[in-house]
């Protein structure tokens, strides 16, 4: 899953990005509203963390423009303001959730997990597909109750397919959502990670749909 963090405080930006990357996400960053708006407008993010008080273009204006342009990406706004009217303004602009500063990083992670679950139609933090279970809180993956050790990229790939199970996902979509913008992207590596996951989870867990992409489904043979 690929996220964007738009926060002008360099230290806080770095802390949020580090926490999200440690949790297994690919993360891009911006430090002003104009750059944040451009990235959110041109890149396919799964969720965005957006500060309200930004230079060049404030967060509310950024969010309003995204929504006017038809962008439906879940957005978690950050605000140092404690007035209820500012929170209402954020929701009216199209925010999906908010966190007031100061905050604990665990709250950011929990709210991002919730946004991603809701966006893909899942109610629980545990994603299940046949015998495969992925706990988005701990990052633990099991097959028929046995824990499976995955690399960070294998986990990202499985998590994306688990969030979108039952739908064919193209290789291009996977590349766009598994790597940040600075990563040297090569769609051929997706095949490598799929092959590794099949060895660890079972050869029939991820199906190849010729010419279209990959399908993870509990109904797979």
Can you give a write-up of this model?
One of its GO terms (molecular function) is transcription cis-regulatory region binding. Keywords: DNA-binding, Phosphoprotein, Transcription, Transcription regulation, Two-component regulatory system. One of its GO terms (cellular component) is protein-DNA complex. The protein is of the alpha/beta class. Helix 2 packs parallel to helix 3 and helix 6 (about 150-165) crosses helix 8. The protein folds into 2 domains: about 1-120, Rossmann fold; about 125-215, Arc Repressor Mutant, subunit A (Orthogonal Bundle), CATH 1.10.10.10. It has a 5-stranded parallel sheet with strand order 2-1-3-4-5, with helices on both faces. A 4-stranded antiparallel sheet has the order 6-7-8-9, covered by helices on one side. A two-stranded antiparallel sheet has the order 10-11. It has 8 helices and 11 strands. The radius of gyration is 18 Å and the shape is elongated. It is about 40% helix and about 20% strand.
